[in-house]
Amino acid sequence: MPTAVLRALRRNHAAKVAVGVIVLVVFVGLFAPLISPHDPNLQNLELKLRPPFWMSGSEPGYLLGTDKLGRDVLSRIMYGTRVSLLVGLAATVLSGVVGAVIGVVSGYYRGWREQVFMRLADVQLAFPSILLALAIIAVLGPSLFFMILVLGLTGWVSYARVVRAEVLSLREREFVTAARAIGDTGPQIMVRHLVPNIVAPLATIGTLQVAAMIVAEASLSYLGLGVPPSVPTWGSLLADGQLYLRSAWWIAVFSGAAIMMTTLAINVTGDLLRDVADPKAYTR
């Protein structure tokens, strides 16, 4: 699989750019405290709404300008990267684990377990995930932990459905029949034989899910239901900049560009992984 990914990456120039953007975003997120030019929460009302460095009236040292409280926009975007990556990755891992367990159990045992879990998935699909997350966080209150928990527990359905379909096919294969014949129990078969064969589709779905979680986090932060207001996020920057689109457009535009570039890069990379994992779409 890694060799196939590298071969596909050499052929796909858009994916090369996307991977480069992801590496840059991860680097900024990890080292934001070391490379950010200013404290993201440091206020200076004398410097409020200063434009980016190439415009007249800009302030030296504030490359992307300042917001309504004189805080450095570039530093707030850098620190917002950390929140977006943490929420995106943690919520994706949580939803992937929950969905994979439910999918494997439903596909292997079938019967009443499959009926219960799949009907539960149907019920959850009847409610838009973002509205369900809004309702829960509105009750629990803004918190990074609650946001990860809610987004993770509302995103398991796509994993469960794909994994269940894979397991339904795998459970009839010869190696599973042989494992039953030598006395392996259901949990042993699931862990030793089924889980290793669903890693590729899980990785593909997970890559695309990270982008969806980042957008969901930005949406909740934009509405004031994400992390506490003292924590800079891309969504809160968008919310701060919406009132100044005419006079201080850079507050919303640069944070929106960060969301767009990151999610686009992740989606392009996810498409690459999907093509590699699908033998009909990718020729090895």
UniProtKB/TrEMBL annotation:
Signal peptide: none annotated. It is found in: Cell membrane. InterPro entries: BP-dependent_transpt_permease (IPR050366), MetI-like (IPR000515), MetI-like_sf (IPR035906), OppC_N (IPR025966). The chain crosses the membrane at residues 17-35, 83-109, 116-138, 144-163, 198-223, 243-266. SUPFAM superfamilies: MetI-like. This is ABC transporter permease. Residues 81-270 form the ABC transmembrane type-1 domain. One of its GO terms (biological process) is transmembrane transport. Keywords: Cell membrane, Membrane, Transmembrane, Transmembrane helix, Transport. One of its GO terms (cellular component) is plasma membrane. PROSITE patterns: ABC_TM1. Belongs to the binding-protein-dependent transport system permease family. It comes from the Bacteria. PANTHER family: D,D-DIPEPTIDE TRANSPORT SYSTEM PERMEASE PROTEIN DDPC-RELATED, OLIGOPEPTIDE TRANSPORT SYSTEM PERMEASE PROTEIN APPC. It is a multi-pass membrane protein.
